[in-house]
Design goal:
Blueprint (H helix, E strand, L loop, with lengths): L5 H23 L5 H25 L6 H20 L5 H25 L4 H23 L5 H23 L2 H14 L6
Helix pairs in contact: 1-2, 1-6, 2-3, 3-4, 4-5, 5-6
């Protein structure tokens, strides 16, 4: 089954890497303008949507095509909408990002149940979805907070979500298993 989901893992990994890059840019550019944030977010969503649709259309993804297609169409639609409307207000952009995160989170949690994954993979995918839903709810609950606080929250979400996706993509269970096995083999005092 791992071979069956290798392409899905690639998509999740690329999506995660793009999210980490987006989050890092926000952290290193705290004075970002609303226009630049809009373009960056729109580019992120459009890129992840396009990559997913290419995977779906090219047939490189087997059983999870429907799930990936929904994720990709949502990303692409939100990304294009934001890019077409670069003069969006700060509050409207926060609501768009919150809506995007909630819907992607719900779909990700659904994928954790519907996709024929191992228990650890399902739990990891479900956790990624829950983080996304919680982030989206915070965006709706606190849209009037200071710009720097919300920017930091968006950056933190992008980083946490991206790192989680990359770990899922490289099969974190095997990664942790290798690390603990290597630590167990090391002589005392050197681990």
């Amino acid at each position: 089954m791992d071979g069956h989901f290798k392409k899905l893992r690639w998509w999740v990994g690329i999506n995660g890497a793009l999210s980490v890059a987006f989050g890092a840019m926000l952290l290193f550019w705290p004075g970002i303008s609303l226009y630049a944030l809009t373009i960056l977010f729109g580019t992120l969503a459009t890129a992840t949507g396009a990559i997913g649709l290419v995977s779906v259309i090219s047939g490189t993804v087997d059983g999870e095509r429907g799930w990936l297609a929904v994720m990709s169409v949502l990303n692409l639609g939100v990304g294009i909408a934001v890019l077409v409307w670069p003069s969006i207000s700060a509050r409207a952009l926060l609501y768009v990002i919150g809506f995007w995160a909630i819907v992607l989170g719900i779909n990700t949690v659904g994928g954790a149940f519907w996709l024929p994954l191992k228990a650890g993979d399902s739990a990891g995918l479900g956790l990624i979805g829950l983080v996304s839903i919680l982030f989206g709810l915070v965006m709706f609950a606190k849209p009037g907070d200071g710009a720097l606080v919300l920017l930091a929250l968006i950056a933190a979400y992008a980083l946490v979500s991206g790192v989680s996706q990359v770990i899922f993509a490289i099969d974190g269970k095997r990664l942790v298993g290798r690390g603990s096995q290597q630590a167990g083999d090391a002589p005392l005092g050197t681990a």
